[in-house]
Amino acid sequence: MAPHVPVPQTDHVRLTWLAPHSGVRCRVLAWTCHCRSVIYELCASGGQVYLRRTIQGDSPTVQETSRMCTTEGHDLWTAVLTGRAR
User: Fold this and answer.
1) What is the pLDDT of residue 24?
2) For the chain, what is the radius of gyration of the CA atoms?
């Protein structure tokens, strides 16, 4: 079962969300529950990782963070899952 993202903490870090890289294949390593309006995914591609955010709706919006090393990416994923980053 995928985790639900908690409400962001008052002092959470605001992430910079970018347009997705088109045509780049990735492997989704982890994801949050699809029952919420915003879904987060931890993705890997080319030896780096990044987070993908999808805002569901009639016209879904997909955004990504910049690419980073695996350790940094997993730390950021943990921060999102604990409400310390959005």
Assistant:
1) 84
2) 12
Percent of the chain past pLDDT 70, that is, above it, reads 100
Pairing of strands 38-45, 61-64: unpaired
Question: For position 47, what pLDDT does the model report?
Answer: 95
With vertex at residue 76, the alpha carbon angle to CA 41 and CA 81, rounded to the nearest 5 degrees, is 65
CA distances from 65 to 33, 48, 54 (A): 19, 12, 12
Distance CA 52, CA 39 (A): 8
Report the amino acid identity of residue 71. T
Question: 3-state SS of the chain?
Answer: CCCCCCCCCCCCECCCCECCCCCCCCEEEEECCCCCCEEEEEEEECCEEEEEEEECCCCCEEEECCCECHHHHHHHHHHHHCCCEC
Tokens 């890289």 map to which residue?
Answer: 21
